[in-house]
Specification:
The structure is a homodimer of 187-residue chains. Chain A has 187 residues and is α+β, with helices and mostly antiparallel strands. Chain A has helices spanning 2-8, 16-23, 80-85, 106-115, 117-143, 146-156, 160-163, 166-172, 177-185, and strands at residues 27-31, 36-38, 46-52, 54-61, 64-72, 76-77, 92-95, 99-105. The mean pLDDT of chain A is 94. The first copy, chain A, binds a DNA duplex (30 and 30 nucleotides) through residues 145-146, 165-167, 175-182, 184-185.
DNA sequence: AATTGCACTTGACCTACATCAAGAAGCTTC
DNA sequence: GAAGCTTCTTGATGTAGGTCAAGTGCAATT
């Protein structure tokens, strides 16, 4: 449960009384490597904080997977847009490695939002971060060629190469696995 | 001032007392057609609600403009990620037509967030909408070819063609003006 | 109403990256 | 530890859509 409090307190400070109420809403969920956590067309029921493991979020189109993000230790995880809108997910959330999540259900989170302004604030601040991150990603996808996108990711998150298969990183960068491989080979 | 209350109340309900305090923070800003509202490298100082006119938000790279969104009547406007993070904007916000905005400054909005949980809630709900919309856009850009993206926009927002130059729509759809023109010609 | 300047169109050509294919190198699993 | 996956590499070929260029049309400015 500590990762939950630590993650929330990256944004706001909770009193012990608040924390007690908040903590009661979370449950641990465990997934083995490769397991689908949330499937396409399923409404995302959980907002999660990652205790252990790496997950990827992707969608499928004409039999091709396009990865749009990863989640790992200390960060949040889930199909955020499906959770927010409570509509069927276009994405799949999958455990890349053995995964332990702390999760809170939609109704519980809404209740906490209503009950504690500080949680509403947490929700807003987290979303602000998401929005800024997605804007950065959008600019990068549009302005940079395959090579520059590769270089940038390697500079910013070289550890990713250890955590997830290259094909998923390639897809995340919006290029084929072959192109990714060739960029790596070039030195 | 009515558009402000109407827009906010699409998300939350304000008591008259709350509205009085909130209303006091906004000011009217007028821009003529073509004027730059927020320039690159400038920190976005305002969050705005559109009273009149159309704006586009774009960035420049190697002398090429890439349009990433539009704003018009009753919606919000501004360089959201720069405003949120209070860091220099990578984007330009420009008045496509004669524009009247109601705007609130960063400090004032932060104060309202602190003062009124209902405003915090408004902020969260608005961001949720942004996140869902950007996720949809991302999926469309990745899964669909130029023609399908064109068809989809024409089905969803045909009015856009009357409001902004085709080159901006083309750019918004992630294609050259020439490709856009050719897609229109085909019937 | 002539001038200037952008937006749009249309055609010819080009290129970054995808796709296809086939082999090599890691992993699981029994 | 051999069999069978899946991932990764490397080469050959294909293509959607970009870029360049040369008009055409229209609206604003004089």
């Amino acid at each position: 449960m500590e990762p939950v409090r630590a993650t929330i307190e990256r944004y706001v400070v909770l009193s012990d009384a608040e924390w007690e109420e908040v903590a009661a809403c979370w449950q641990e969920r465990i997934f083995q490597k490769g397991a689908v956590i949330t499937a396409t067309d399923q409404v995302e029921a959980w907002f999660s904080i990652v205790k252990e493991g790496v997950q990827r979020i992707y969608f499928e189109h004409d039999g091709v997977e396009a990865c749009i993000g990863f989640a790992y230790g200390g960060s949040w995880s889930g199909v955020y847009d499906s959770f927010i809108s409570q509509t069927p997910s276009r994405f799949v959330l999958q455990a890349v490695s053995h995964t332990v999540l702390f999760s809170i259900g939609y109704a519980d989170l809404q209740r906490l939002y209503k009950q504690f302004p500080v949680m509403e604030r947490f929700g807003r601040l987290l979303l602000e971060e998401v929005v800024v991150a997605r804007a950065t990603r959008e600019v990068e996808q549009l302005t940079m060629g395959a090579q520059e996108r590769y270089d940038r990711l390697m500079a910013r998150s070289p550890h990713l190469l250890q955590l997830v298969p290259q094909k998923d990183i390639a897809s995340y960068l919006g290029m084929s696995a072959e192109t990714f491989s060739r960029l790596r080979a070039r030195r």
